[in-house]
Amino acid sequence: MNDQAARTLCIDIGGSAIKGTVYDQDGAALSERVRIQTPRPASPEAVTAIIAEVAKASGEFDRVTCGFPGVVDSGVILTAPNLDGEWHGYPLAKEVSTRLGRPTKVANDADIQGLAVIEGQGVEMILTLGTGMGCGLYIDGLCTWNLELAHHPFGKGSDTYEDRVGERVRKRIGNKKWKQRVLAVVKQVYPIFNFRRLYLGGGNSARLDPASLPEYVTVVDNKAGMLGGLKMWD
C-alpha cells in the first residue's frame, strides 16, 4: 500500500464516548463518524472491545491511530485518570493492532489534536476541554509529548486545572461561570509558556465565545482530535 493512498482509521477515546472516522491522506472523510458510549467501567479490555466495534462499523482501512486521554509511551499506557481499571503498563497499540490486524499508533489525545491545527512556528499550545482537560505543547512544530498540565494545582488551594474546568464542574456551576474559569486558565498559562498561539479544542470548546477571548487564542473544531491522527504517520 502506497502511504499516499493509505486509509487511516482515526479513533478518539474520550471519557464519555469513543469515536472513529476513516480518512484519506488529504483529510477527506471516507466513512461516517461512528460514536459509541465509553463503557463503564472503562477497563482496558472493555475499551479495546469498543474500539473493535468502532472499527467494524467504519468500513475498510489500512492503519489506525488512537488518541488516548492519558500519558502514553511508545504505545503503552502509563496513566488514564478519567477511565477505570488497571491501565498502567497496558500495551494498547499492540492490543488494537492484534485485534484489528492493522498497524496502530497510540498517543495522548490532546497532543494528537494539536498536530492537526498548529502552524509549526515558534511556541504553540492547545488546551482541550471535555470530560477533563488535555494539554499539548509544540516548539517549531515538534510536540513535547504528555504534558499533563490538567493535574497540576491551579492556585493556592487543592484544585487542579481539571477540577476548575472539567465537565463535572461545568455542569455544576453553569456555562457562564465555567467560561470565566476557562478565561482565567488561559490568562494563567500565558505568562508561563509565552506561546505565540493558544488553541482551545475538545467538545466543550464549542460553548466558548471566541470574541471574548484574547487575540492570541483560536477556538478549533473538535474533529481535529481525529484529523491529527493522520499526522502521526507523516
Descriptive report:
With 234 residues, this protein is α/β, with parallel strands linked by helices. The protein has helices at 44-57, 92-100, 109-115, 161-165, 167-173, 175-193, 224-231, and strands at 8-13, 17-23, 34-37, 63-68, 72-73, 76-77, 104-108, 123-129, 133-139, 142-143, 197-201, 217-219. It folds into two domains: 3-111, ATPase, nucleotide binding domain (Nucleotidyltransferase, domain 5, 2-Layer Sandwich); 118-227, 2-Layer Sandwich (Nucleotidyltransferase, domain 5). 29% of the residues lie in helices and 24% in strands. The strands form three sheets. The protein has a five-stranded mixed sheet, sandwiched between helices. A five-stranded mixed sheet has the order 10-9-8-11-12, sandwiched between helices. A hairpin with a 2-residue loop joins strand 5 and strand 6 (76-77). It is globular and about 50 Å long. The mean pLDDT is 95.
